[in-house]
Specification:
Length: 331
């Protein structure tokens, strides 16, 4: 039997996402073959496609950072799951496919009553948001937070998760997306036409407790300036890597140097870096716990992921084009 998947045979623009047909893989010992129902499409996939993401295999490979699917076949020795069960997983690569074999330990069961597409949205963007707030920043009710890219995938997940903790939130977004940020109950700042450092000080008086910054590069310096005493800057992404000026510098690790320099300053403020894959390796139990917690919040309708579009596998290149044009504000 054959199956279809998207393959990247060389890094580049959306056109490198090509549909291929292959022989259906058999699960090895300890693995499970999953029939994929959906894979999220997020900005991180764009970085992977462009070859700007560290630690991924060389082409050819299938992209796709997160999946929801149905257990199709168990490999020898797997007794924790059953065929027909719905599961999610953080795959990092491989998700843009009809089938994928994964170690059983990587799969988290999805409770009944959850929409598959909403579930897949939780794995990358909501877990990132949740861990930034509760595992790294350890926020308390009333804390002030500045969220960059507040109308994006992780941004909206941060706004929703932060609402549950009663945080005072400010979010940068381009003007057309201010309604979305306000509808999530927070103060939007137009980063294209306003100085966000000045805006934060005029809105808060003395700055914020936490900044979540996925823009990276020199942007981190301005984010750091918005912190009040004992504040924490968390860098978790490199949107600036797609800027041709920044891309080369990014590749030389300038982002990490800047961040390391900020970490050395003895001014009462802190800076740190978060990466979901690295954090999951360090704390696999936390990852499972946090996905399960978020799935339960979904069951109880306490969070509502925004699904910008639902496209068939063959339209992967089109999905990336939409994301690049910011025509969609969520994965
Ligand atoms: N470390 C991790 O584990 C981890 C996990 C998930 C994601 N990420 C990273 O997080 C970043 C965002 O991912 P995403 O899925 O949320 O992407 P997304 O949905 O495409 O959102 C990105 C947002 O960034 C905004 N933006 C771009 N330049 C900006 C600037 N100079 N100031 C403020 N906002 C700006 C855009 O806002 P407008 O559309 O309003 O202009 C857009 O909404 C990516 O770099 C991704 O790789 C990291």
């Amino acid at each position: 039997m054959s199956y279809k998947r998207i393959l990247i045979t060389l890094h580049g623009g959306p056109e490198v996402l090509q549909l291929f047909e292959d022989e259906l893989p058999e699960p090895k010992v300890g693995e499970v073959r999953v029939r994929i129902l959906a894979s999220g499409v997020a900005f991180t996939d764009v970085l992977i496609r462009e070859g700007l993401y560290l630690g991924i295999p060389k082409p050819p490979f299938s992209p796709g950072y997160e999946i929801v699917g149905i257990v199709d076949k168990l490999g020898l020795g797997v007794c924790t799951l059953e065929p027909g069960q719905r599961v999610v997983a953080l795959t990092i690569v491989g998700g843009y496919s009809e089938f994928l074999c994964l170690p059983a330990a990587e799969l988290v069961p999805v409770p009944a009553g959850v929409d598959a597409l909403e579930a897949v949205n939780l794995v990358l963007q909501y877990v990132t948001a949740y861990q930034l707030l509760y595992r790294i920043a350890k926020v308390k009710p009333g804390d002030r937070i500045l969220i960059h890219g507040a109308a994006g995938g992780v941004g909206t997940a941060l706004l929703e998760s932060g609402k549950l903790a009663d945080l005072e939130m400010y979010g940068t977004a381009s003007k057309p997306k201010h309604e979305l940020v306000s509808s999530l109950g927070r103060v939007p700042i137009d980063y294209k036409h306003e100085d966000f450092v000045q805006q934060i000080y005029s809105l808060t008086g003395d700055g914020v407790d936490v900044v979540c910054d996925a823009i990276g590069g020199s942007h981190l310096l301005n984010s750091y300036k918005t912190l009040r005493n004992k504040g924490l800057l968390i860098n978790y992404g490199f949107c600036c890597a797609l800027n041709p000026k920044w891309s080369r510098i990014f590749q030389r690790g300038a982002n990490f140097i800047l961040l390391s320099l900020l970490q050395l300053l003895l001014d009462g403020k802190k800076a740190s870096f978060y990466n979901i894959a690295g954090f999951k390796k360090q704390h696999p139990d936390w990852f499972r716990e946090d996905v399960t917690k978020l799935l339960n919040l979904l069951v109880h309708k306490q969070i509502k992921p925004i699904i910008a579009d639902r496209l068939p596998l063959a339209k992967a290149a089109h999905a990336h084009k939409l994301l690049a044009r910011s025509a969609v504000s969520n994965g």
